[in-house]
Amino acid sequence: MAGDYQQRGFRVLRGGLIAPLRESLKQVAAPLLDRARAGNWRETDGESEGSTGWYGHKPVDTVMEFLAPMIAHASGGGALWPTFSYLRLYPRGTKLTPHTDRDSCEVAITAAVDGSDATPWPILIEAGDGSVESVDLAPGDILVYAGRERRHWREPLDGDWRLQVMFFYVRQAGPFARWKYDTRPALGTPPPGSHPDIGEAVP
Questions:
Q1: E strand spans, the chain
Q2: Which residue from 194, 150, 138, 186 is spatially nearest to 6, judged by alpha carbons?
Q3: For residue range 171-182, what is the model confidence (pLDDT) as tens digits?
Q4: What is Dmax (Cα atoms) for the chain?
Q5: How far is CA 144 from CA 38, 39, 158, 195, in A?
Q6: Does the global pTM surpass 0.85?
């Protein structure tokens, strides 16, 4: 229920990423998987060094926009503006260092899309009362969380690879509404500055 989000700072939607959306994202990610199978990972800096992914790719941003009403309802607030998406592939040993997200991630989701096997790779998140909870996501499951407020991280991945999608939103009537589309002119377009996109990810 939305009250879970208000009290704990997160909520799990089992099966929230329905099969047609998962299949669409898997098709988009096929070039990334080809690179991974060839051992050609593109190193990245930041909280998940060693992973590779696409920022704001148009088909992925389209799914993010489609899910906005459901995520608004799950997070118990008003209408949302989508800001940006990441479709990211993580190799064995990848970890996510403890962090909170930036202002454009007022309401955030991470969803499991696919993986090499069923080895658990839970995300650890600090609840509203300061306790740490471990949330494992099967393919299709969504974690909705307050990205700016709830510190989250992962221990090293024990499986061969995982494909995750992250969507970020701000409240249309909230203090971070200026981050609509992450200041881009439209969804599916790159932002100012340097971010990975489909052109950089495809060999």
A1: 10-13, 52-55, 80-91, 96-99, 107-115, 123-126, 132-135, 142-145, 152-154, 161-171
A2: 150
A3: 999 999 999 999
A4: 46
A5: 33, 32, 24, 24
A6: yes
